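User: For my dataset I need records formatted as: sequence, then structure tokens, nothing else. Please produce one.
Assistant:
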Amino acid sequence: MPYAPPPRTPSGPRRRTLLASAAGAVLLVGCSTGSKDSDGGTTGGSPSVVERARARAAGESTDLVARYDAVVAVHPALAQRLAPLRAEAVRHAEAFGGLRKASPSESPSESPSDAASPPPASAAPSPAVPADEKAALAELAAAERSLADRRAKALLDLPGEPARLLASVAAAGAAHAYLLTEGAK
């Protein structure tokens, strides 16, 4: 018995097609047609644009680390729970050239919170932290979400590798926001 087509054929693209197209578009954004020149820069994008984006991302990640530190200072009970997310924010700042990198003399057995020092006292003042733990987690999640959204928009202006780095850090920030939101419930 032959298979009869559905009584009504849906008009327009299907949901899977749209999702696949969106995923493909995101992957294409990270691709660069610019060629590498001998000093490692790209001819497809302005180095000054890349350097400005890198500096901005480093500063934003450093500010996020300060926000994590402020929440932990007010709510020490959250320290263990927030430590992995803070350590990731430190690694993001380091990936963009911010904070200090661990020196070779430091042992690899140190914990991530030991290896990554807090930002210097001359950094931006720490944000006000709500007295309620759930509200503090919600504000931290909102900061992560907002930063991830800004980074997702900013990566459209960057060539190849810097765009891929910013995209992966934006995705990590969105995951952090989700984890913080789920933890606030």
